[in-house]
Design a protein that fits this description.
The complex is a heterodimer of chains A (about 200) and B (about 90). With about 200 residues, chain A is α+β, with helices and mostly antiparallel strands. Chain A contains five helices and eleven strands, in the order αββαβββαββαβββαβ. In chain A, the strands form two sheets. In chain A, strands 8-9-10-7-1-11 form a six-stranded mixed β-sheet. In chain A, strands 3-4-5-2-6 form a five-stranded antiparallel β-sheet, with no helix packed on it. Chain B is mainly beta and about 90 residues long. In chain B, strand 4 and strand 5 form a beta hairpin. Classes of the chains: A alpha+beta (about 200), B mainly beta (about 90).
């Protein structure tokens, strides 16, 4: 059996088949990120801020918020966060050594997530067609994130200072379905897809 | 469609949640001491009240936490939601 190439992406087949580029008229663009790592952090105990500081992590973001630039922490639950950083970036020592300080668990979920960034004036109206949460920038503004359903698929949505930009983290197994849904639903606004080589800062 | 207030995530659509049945049912401390009838009562029998109920719900597609919901099964009105640690019981 031939060895599987190491840099295959869950959306390779979709991207090959997706011919409409949208050109300059695209009102919504999707960047498919590559080269980032994802770790799930679960922490027992009360003093989260102190535990995070001890681990060399930025302060934990509040409920339904995310923080960071290159190294991004998303709030997932009262004792659970998602750490996303560019591949090759010096991750905190306890992740590299595989020995989280008690009582924290760290799981490398890099292979399990696909990250997309939607941008353009059509991005939020497009998501609103498949999502029940209020995506108005007054409610989902800068630094907010939410785990919810997009077209029945579980996703993590994160919004930015620029209201026309939304980051979408999707499970690998749902990625092609979500991309097909975005392509289909975004047809009227000439949605365009592109791979991005590196996980850019703050996205 | 119900709008349910998750104690951590705020108001979300019912489709994100899973219903977990009646709240405040605790596992007997010493199951061996129970008769079959008592065990069956713990396992299967629920009060199925009409009106005000305390239920547990799971925010399955959100923060994945269990919490308590006080809901009226006639009007479907949700009176309050609390975290599972039982801090809250409505006045």
């Amino acid at each position: 059996m031939p060895e599987r190439p190491r840099d295959t992406h869950a959306l390779d087949a979709f991207m090959k088949g997706f011919s409409a580029t949208g050109g300059g008229s695209a009102e919504a663009r999707v960047l498919v990120h590559q080269g980032f790592s994802v770790h799930n952090l679960r922490l027992r105990g009360q003093d989260h801020a102190q535990a995070f500081a001890r681990c060399g992590l930025p302060a934990p973001p509040a409920n339904n918020e995310w923080a960071g630039d290159d190294e991004t922490l998303y709030w997932l639950g009262p004792d659970e966060w998602l750490l996303v950083c560019p591949e090759g970036m010096a991750t905190p020592d306890f992740i590299a050594s595989g020995a989280p300080p008690e009582p924290m668990t760290v799981n490398d979920l890099t292979g399990g997530w696909v990250m997309l960034t939607l941008s353009g004036p059509g991005a939020r109206p497009l998501l609103e067609r498949g999502c029940t949460i209020d995506l108005n920038p007054a409610v989902m503004g800068e630094g907010h994130c939410a785990q919810t359903l997009l077209a029945k698929s579980p996703v993590l949505l994160a919004t930015h200072a620029d209201p026309e930009r939304v980051t979408l983290l999707v499970r690998r197994s749902f990625a092609e379905y979500v991309a097909l849904w975005l392509a289909h639903t975004g047809e009227p606004c000439h949605i365009a897809f592109a791979f991005q080589a590196r996980h850019a800062a703050g996205s | 469609m119900l709008l349910i207030e998750c104690p951590w995530c705020g108001p979300r659509d019912e489709s994100e949640f899973a219903y977990g049945g009646e709240a405040d049912i605790s596992r007997p401390i010493d199951p061996d001491a129970l008769s079959d009838a008592e065990w069956a009562d713990y396992l299967f029998m629920r009060s199925n009240r009409k009106g005000e109920n305390r239920e547990i719900w799971n925010h399955q597609h959100g923060c994945r936490r269990w919490f308590v919901v006080e809901r009226d099964t006639v009007s479907y009105a949700i009176r309050a939601t609390f975290p599972m640690d039982g801090e809250g019981r409505s006045p």
